[in-house]
Structure formats: C-alpha cells, structure tokens
Amino acid sequence: MHAAARPYWLLLALLCLLAAASPDRRDPTEPEQRVETFLEETARLFGDTEADIVRRLGQPQTRQATPFTSPHDDAPYEVISLRYDGLAVALYSMEGGQRQFLHRIAVTAGPTCFARGICLGTPREQLAASLGQPEDREAARWRYADMSGSNELLFTFDAKGNIASMTWTAEAD
Q1: Which residues contact 162 (CB under 8 A, 6 or more apart)?
Q2: Which distant-in-sequence residues (6+ apart) come within 8 Å of 153 by Cβ?
C-alpha cells in the first residue's frame, strides 16, 4: 500500500467503526411507511391548527382547553379538544397557541372520512387494500402504528366487517 494512502484507509476504517457504534436507525419497513404516509395524508385533511380545523369543519359544539405537562418539555402546554357530532379533534397547543399540531381525531358517526376515502362503513377488505394488514389484529379491532410506535390508527368493525369507528393519534414525545 502506498504510504500516502494509509491515512485515508485509517479514516475510512474509523468512520465504519463510528457508524457501527451509532444507535440503530433503521429505515422504516414498507408497511410502516404506508402507515406513516396515511397518517400524514389524513392530518392534511384537517389542518395543523385550531383555525384550520374550524375553517374546514365549522365551529365546534364544544371547545375545551386542558393544561398538559410532559416530562420531555420544559414548559406546560394545553390540549385543545373540539367536539362535533360524531367527531372529536384534539390538538397540542404550545407557546400560547403559536405552535399547534394534531393529537387525536376520533370518528364515531357522520360523514367524516380519513385519507383515501376511508370512512365509517368502509369494508375491512378495502381498509386492508389501502393500508395492508394491521400490526395488531382482533376480530373487531385493527391497530396500525408507524415506526416510532407513538403514532397510530385504530379501527373498530361492526358485525358485518365494516368500520364502526376510527381514531388517528399522534402522541407528543
């Protein structure tokens, strides 16, 4: 080996060792990516802020702001809950409402749909065609999660195998 090339090989070996010692940061699997994309598509239907949601859905029947603290954040913030007929939307609200993001969307009645036309009454087979097989599966309940495990979709089914309720959740970490 040429003497001038030796430092480059040593640097390459050091970089390989550092990469091997770094925390496991695997790429998402195809099912996890499909769920992540669906979560994002659904969130875009509702918007990022309370103002977006009210603009799209109208004034809620009720609005409640609940103080919330997390061991991961220095400052407390609020969870804002907006209730409509058969629909509940919750947001995390920080810095006096300057930063907001969706926390939960729960649909139990009415015409509200998630992304890709997944609505109440959608057959289980259509859901599986759109999202694949769930991470957790019971006869009347399917759960999908993204790679972090903090964001999920939960669907319940009626006796005919059609969606009876659906919940989109993003947990603050």
Answers
A1: 120, 121, 122, 123, 124
A2: 35, 38, 39, 114, 131, 143, 144, 145, 166, 167, 168, 169
Q: What is the pLDDT along the chain (173 residues), one digit of tens a residue?
A: 555 544 333 333 333 333 444 444 556 677 778 889 999 999 999 998 999 999 999 999 999 999 888 777 777 789 999 999 999 999 999 887 788 999 999 999 999 999 999 999 999 999 999 999 998 998 899 999 988 778 999 999 999 999 999 999 998 76
- Please give the distance of CA 142 from its chain centroid, rounded to a whole number: 15
Q: Indicate yes or no: pTM above 0.85.
A: no
Domain with residues 29-170, CATH architecture: Sandwich (2.60)
- Sheet with 136-138, side-by-side order of all strands: 62-68, 77-84, 87-94, 99-107, 163-170, 151-157, 141-145, 136-138
Q: Which two tokens stand for residue 12?
A: 């390459």
